[in-house]
Amino acid sequence: MAEVSDFTVEAGRNATARLLQLPDPPSAIFAGGSNLALGAMAEAKARGLRVPQDLAIVGYTDSPLASLVDPALTVVEVPARQIGLQAMHVLSELIQGKRPRRRRTVLATKLIVRDSCGSHPLG
Fold first, then answer.
1. Residue-wise pLDDT tens digits, 21-55
2. CB < 8 Å & 24+ apart, contacts of 102-108
């Protein structure tokens, strides 16, 4: 695991560089954001690694660039609008001086399989 201070392409490159310097480097990376995953792809290519043959990469959250890079980036798509609405609801309650009740909200996600993970959907 490599921690990052922000969710930029450069942070993804730096974290990937640290991971690839380990005595037993990973064969796959799951990045906490699309920009981090794009940085991982850039660093892998700069080191002469082939994605996904040498290093599989998956990002969290989709972006317009994810399907345009080569290979196209596999991502977990999240309902950003719903997450924002839930957060605004809680914030509104706090602003009104209410104490939000604790609850667990589960929102649907979707795996969008593209080429960067080395696996292709059936059919």
1. 999 999 999 999 999 999 999 999 999 999 999 99
2. 107/78, 107/79, 107/82, 107/83, 108/79
